[in-house]
Sequence to fold (661 residues):
Amino acid sequence: MSHTTSSWLAEAFAVFAKEWRTEFRTRYALNTLGLFAITSLVVVSISLGPLGAATAERTTVMPVLLWVLLLFAVAAGLPRAFVHEEESRTATALRLSATPSALFTGKLLYSWTVVLALELIVTPLFVAMMHLPVANPGLLALALVLGGYGLAAGGTLVAAIIAQARSSGTLFSVLALPVLLPLLVLAIELSRAAIAGDFVPVVPRQLLLYDASVTVAGLLLFPAVWNP
Amino acid sequence: MQESPPCQLSFQNLYRSFGRLAVLRGVSGEVSTGQTLLVTGANGSGKSTLLKCLAGLMVPDRGEISYRQDNTQLDARERRLAIGYVAPDLSFYEELTVEENLLFFARLRRTSEDRIGHLLERVNLPPDRSAGTLSSGMLQRLRWCFALLHQPRLLLLDEPFQNLDSPGQDATRSLLEQHLDEGLAVTANPGLLELPHVAHHLQLAG
Amino acid sequence: MKTLLKWLLWLWISIMIWGAFKYAPLAEGFIGDSSRILFFHVPMAWTSFIAFIAGGVWSARYLFGARDPKHDRAAASAIEVGIVFCILATASGAIWAKVMWGAYWNWDPRQVWITVAILFYAAYLALRSAVPDRDTRRRLSAAYAILGLVVAPFLFFILPRMTGFTLHPEPVINPEGKVEMERRMMHVLILGSIGFNILFFWIHNLRCRLETLFEERADSTAFHGGS
Fold:
């Protein structure tokens, strides 16, 4: 590995480590995303739990609920990745020091790990509270990992865009939803297949393709978004 | 025999407006190694805007900025990463300590971490203090450490001595003097202090 | 010269409208005169499609080129006018769907696609209005428009396949490459597609010039202190 590649990786890792260090001290992501997801899960479960929905519709409805829940939790917490940098005015120091692509990668990896942690808490609770039998747990895990990455990648790029605009909180949902829509449809389809036990191999490939496209677009567009 | 100086910053005819408010209207200037360019003017005359444009944190509407460092021409992106910048709009991570902040930026800048201890000693700043609990004078000292971390050739200083007590002013002034041995500086709003090596004076109209 | 071109465009569109009602025959299997709406619906859908792609290309030229404000104005104008064509195509399609399928809206894959496209470009305009600084606004909106072009193929190719079926008639250009259309209907459709695209570029040109004037006025009050 060349010297520049390894120092680029070190830079990306420094951003990743900084995010998690501040997270451990403030517990912001855990509090907002985690509690938001669990509260909505309780609400959904009370009204739609084992008795609420007909069994025939459950495999169709449940994955939709799960991903809508994850989407809203992400929309509540993820924009902070960049909004906080602008609001607390640390973005200036960051602009003067960081290579944009490494900064984006570090932020993206942090967002992905946050989403994965969120899924790790929410999904078992969801499955338990809804009495949801999963035919193929491995496939559900795949949907959560690939879908979670797509949420993090698309969300991080849109967060970088809206951080420099006014009223960035509401703008995130408006801008992120059309971008994340294909991902959500694919992730819901894969989760449904995992619960029902009928596997269509083309869907994971399409999810992977979405993840790759948004990553490349992010690395290409972020430097122009970030720097004047 | 006259050699051209290794570092030189020059800018011609800079214009920048915010919506309908024109802040810079055709500002030009020049400074090279060992010199300070002093920028003065009334509040709102565009001193901070000029420094942001020079730092590459803002793009002027019109005009040219050219910076040569150690005889190589740098573009806007390279200039942004190369300069040292002290300004009131510079903040740090309140959840991290002073030292953790500087370590983080040193890693981003891919520069040695050895200077951190030395700089903190020079400005007399406790490394373990959380950046969120710093007084405004201590925050100003931290800004100086951040700016000098990577030993930049060009320092852009906006209100560099604000909130500093007299030991703080002495410490930062000696840092600036040492910097000017090989570097150059643009200083706006230095307060009542007398600056070393002022070669040019740019007066901005209000 | 310009006046002559304007008259030619007017004449072209007039002939196309006349052709749609008098020259082209009715299509088989369509209720009443409902097939005639397609002479307007299809060219408008195509024009909005081209407008959005042009908007993305101009955005890329702005962002990765010399950051010429001209390209930003062209991109924003193309997307604005594209939205108008897109809404007209959606409305005409919905009216036709009511006649043929009995409902204005039934989440056909193409209706999904066009809804997301309108949402996306409405978000683009919302973003533009939410950034006060001109330079920042240009950068951010250009990046968002390009992101749209990256995501669009997924909506376009993958979603319709997932939902499985479509009531929508075969597109004029279908995978087999054969044209299943009466000759005279084809004439009107080609006339319309070309006419609407020229109409788009004419409106687009006006919109760009208007935007230039707005920016020049803002500059002159800023730098010369006028009122």
User: Anything to note?
Assistant: Chain B touches chain A at residues 55-59, 77, 80-81, 83, 85, 87, 89-96, 100, 104-105, 107-110, 146 (CB under 8 Å). The domain at 8-204 of chain B is CATH 3.40.50.300 (Rossmann fold). The first strand of chain B starts at residue 8 and ends at 18. The mean pLDDT of chain B is 91.
